[in-house]
Amino acid sequence: MLGLLTRVLAIAVFYDDCSTDPDGYLSMSRLVADGEGIVGPFTGQPTAFRPPLYPVLLGSLMWAGLTPVAALLSLNLICGVATVWLTWRLCDVFGLSGMWQITATTCVAVDPLLLRYTALPMTEVASACLLSLGLVAWHSVFDPRHGVPENPKRRTRLILSGFVMGLLAMLRPIGFVVAVFLAAREVWRSPRQHLAQVCIIAAAAGVIVLPWIVRNYLHFDAIIPATTHGGYTLALGNNPSFYRDVIRTDAVAWSGEQLAEWQRGVQQSAAEANIDPSDEPAMDAFMYQHAQSAIHAAPATFARACLFRLQRFWSVRAVTTPASDADNADVDERPEQLSRRATMFQAAAVMTSVWYSLLWAGVALSLLHQVRSRGTAGLATLWLTVLSFLCIHTFYWTDARMRTPVMPLLCILAAAGWRTVLTRSAELTSAGPDEPQ
User: Fold this and answer.
1) What are the angstrom distances between the C-alpha of 405 and each of 44, 78, 168, 175, 222?
2) Tens digit of each residue's pLDDT (9 = 90 or more) over 232-264
3) Count: domains in the chain
4) Is residue 142 in some structural domain?
5) How far is CA 135 from the centre of its chain?
6) Could you give the count of Cα atoms lying within 13 Å of 334 in the half-sphere of its Cβ?
7) What is the distance between the alpha carbons of residues 152 and 148, in angstroms, rounded to a whole number?
């Protein structure tokens, strides 16, 4: 109920953002609802630039009669509330109970990033839900308490786990990386027992992913398991303009005009190389080559850019004052109203900074306990999942929103970290003067 209430309040605050379309998902969803399939909103041609699951889900709700905003809010509210419940289940799975289970779940219910993206047509909220569901399903397979591999129920869980991982990959391609990390760990732990199970999960995931691969091969004559967006995302964070404007000047962000200038330059370079902008696989390969050239030309700057991306991923300041507020303000809006709005954003920025500082302190304590216990703390699955995100977002374009899907896991890790410290402090306090401490 708390999770539902906070999300409804977030929608009320950010309702105007429900009709924005920063990633083009609403436009794609309308075309899906009209029976056009996954096509570009401007070209009308088949596209693989975005993963298919989110527009398919939104388009299905629109086809059923919901307006675009109603479809968005219905899907994000369901996923948001389900994420809160799944966090409770993950706490059961990883040994958090009582006050600490309530603490971790409450953190997810009120997390600023999860609330902020409830009102936006983007995949963050749905990804957090599917990732949490995938980890619950994964643990149901590899937890020895659930029986031997020949158990019929366990075989069903293997298939369901594969389905969820496949859906996660079709919602956000990093799902492929998460699955590889988790599968590698299980095979390393017990090759003889777990290899066959991992193969079953992979086959079940393939049932979900294969239609997308076949469709892309028919349209593009290329094997595209995920998207044609990866090259752009890598080049966006690794190009001479970004290095010059942000990394070498220690700027906080890349301005809109600088970004637009780089995009125009890349388009011109592609045209000079006789690459058709509508040829997505060719443009994707061109973008990868563009990024690799920038990395090889300035390896030291690339290393600084990686550190910059890690800093952005873990940034405590997840809410900032929009730079365009003054430009987009209504002409009738008074200066005191603009000042009040800026003050509200600044207050929100301070509160979120305090919030994430406390969470990151708990995560650091949890990591310290994991290291000191030599990996026996029982949270390796959560850490591996977070590590898979870090491995991608160290190199590709990154900001604080990229961590939204793993916020439930980070809240659990933070609660586990604070539990370790406070429990140890209570033990030391209660120990008598003659008892060993």
Assistant:
1) 30, 15, 11, 11, 29
2) 999 999 999 999 999 998 887 787 788 889 999
3) 1
4) yes
5) 14
6) 3
7) 9
